[in-house]
Amino acid sequence: MSLLTERADLASIRQDALNIFKAGIAAADPYQAVKRYLVPALFNSYAKVHIIAFGKAACAMAHAASEIIPLHMLTDKGIAITNYENVTKIENIDIIGAGHPLPDDAGFKAAQLIAERVSKAQPNELILVLISGGGSALLPYPAGSITLQEKLLTTNLLLASGATINQINCVRKHLSLLKGGGLAKLAFPAHLHALILSDVLGDDLSSIASGPTVADASTYAEAIEVFKDQGVWDQVPDNVREHLEQGKLGAFPETPKPGDDLFKTTKYTLIGSNTISLNATLQSANSLGYEAILYNDHLCGEAKLAGTAFVTQCIERRLKSPLQNKPIALLAGGETTVTLKGNGHGGRNQEMALAFALAAEQQNLSGNWAFLSGGTDGRDGPTDAAGGIVDTNTLNRMTKASFKPLELLENNDSYTALKASDDLINTGATGTNVADLQIALIQPKP
Description:
Blueprint: H1 3-26, H2 30-37, E1 48-54, H3 58-68, E2 78-83, E3 93-98, H4 105-119, E4 125-131, H5 135-138, H6 148-161, H7 165-173, H8 182-187, E5 191-197, H9 220-229, H10 238-248, E6 266-272, H11 274-287, E7 291-299, H12 303-320, E8 328-334, H13 348-362, E9 368-375, E10 387-391, H14 394-400, H15 405-410, H16 414-420, E11 424-425, E12 436-443
């Protein structure tokens, strides 16, 4: 095979990976998901409907709902909070841009508006809550005397420590007025129905946006243990430590627990998830002629380790495949973490992609291959990229640009590495969020 032909083949494989990724994103389209569920007849028993939306898909979800709910029932404008990149104008909806992944004052003020609105709702009214990924950061309402800055410092501390999303949410629920069932508590005795687009693996409703409309089984004591397990309890702001310790002693009420009467008027419907998007990638890969294999529908753990393990699986699955001369697609969905040890720039998907490229060279992954890891929201960590897509020649491109891939990985500087090799994925904000997708494509060389 000539070098020119190999480059053409790699370009084709990369395009296939991008197309498969886009199919996964399309399956999580929030506008269509809401349209599939809502019908005007659902609102016949209520005098009034309040639209409350928060998350990266808030605009699309609120837009769909506003088109379906009878206009005479929307006597107040709806409220939708989303990240700045996803802000769009919608008739009858007040759209508020706010900070993500770290909350800001705009989100805090918007959360106050929502709290005021739902607490005034009457028993014969419905609060339609539209929840999507990113809702935890976009709806900050610190509890007690905790300031937003203290909550920011605490969130930063957890993100840098490598805490899992479930651990972070456990803490958030006990530092917030709205999370962990707090929104449902404020809404009672009005009726509340949440339509949920899940960005959490396994679709644990108490973890999606930190579960503002569902019961929470976690405790103040468990929130404290998260910090201690990560070895950062001594770095937590004094006011936050005091609040958690006092809560553990009973000075503050616990989050609403399963069986609480307030949940008798609260319902929910799951309308989108990583599982649905992952199934769409499997179908897309098959349609493109690949033998599609589901590797992991709950991919988690340290990103760089997950990237290395992905290479091992590619080699093992290929050897076990009865069609070793046929292109294969190994697919996964999930959400990994990054423990920051350097001062570089990047996100979990970029770090996994760079780790995959290095492991592929170390483990001698044969054939022409491409690996993509991307966030369905179009943003990977604090960067403008959705993730990374690497191939057989990625490391060569990096070294020719005078960069050392391994050193960059160890410095958590995957963004610099992938930018040098032209391997960043830039989709822009997608308007949805159902965690991450991984796509490994391998074609045998003639």
